[in-house]
Amino acid sequence: MTVRLRRANRQDWEVVHGLHHELYVKFRRSAFDAARWKLTAYRNLTTVLRSDVDRLLNDRSAFVFLAESVGFEAARRGDEATEALGYITGRTEVVPERELSRRGIVEDWFVVPGHRGTGVGEQLLTKATEHCRSIGCDVMESTTWPDNERAVALHEKAGFLPIELKMRRPL
């Protein structure tokens, strides 16, 4: 299998939305216990996901990179038959008061379950890092869910350091 990484565009809306849905609906339910789920729930998740994909694909400060598989035979023929393996999304932000003022912020980083542990996630992060570096970012930041031990380990392996821990409780 050949993995191709590319920047998503507006024509990829359905693919990006599908990955976004899988992350925020399917995976998130398995990553959160009931108490955390309630503290992070949206009133209308369908609308939120659609709006988020629209923003990601239309905002000039945002980026979305897709990882796609191209079967060996398809790749040899130059065929475009692909399967989405994962994606990474983010944006850039400038905070002039900070010494490291131009930030690349990873918002979502997801690999479909059947392709985890194959290096796709690392390739996506490398692509996002190269992009952020090429546009002058000084630092990258990312968040992950605290019980997602695999993601925490991948962040640490990639050199991310914990900076803050956000806590929430119902009132």
Can you walk me through this structure?
- The chain has a single domain, classed as Aminopeptidase.
- A hairpin with a 7-residue loop joins β3 and β4.
- It has a five-stranded mixed β-sheet, sandwiched between helices.
- It has 171 residues and is of the alpha+beta class.
- Helices cover 41% and strands 25% of the residues.
- The mean pLDDT is 89.
Instruction: Write down the domain tally.
Output: 1
Question: How much is the radius of gyration in Å?
Answer: 17 Å
State the order of secondary-structure elements, H for helix, E for strand: EHHHEHEEHEH
Number of strands: 5
Structural class determined from secondary elements: alpha+beta
Q: Could you give the topology of this structure?
A:
Elements: E1 2-7, H1 13-31, H2 34-40, H3 45-58, E2 62-70, H4 72-77, E3 82-94, E4 102-111, H5 120-134, E5 139-142, H6 149-157
Parallel strand pairs: 4-5
Antiparallel strand pairs: 1-2, 2-3, 3-4
Helix pairs in contact: 1-3
Question: Keyphrases for this structure?
Answer:
five-stranded mixed β-sheet, Aminopeptidase, 6 helices, 171 residues, alpha+beta, 5 strands
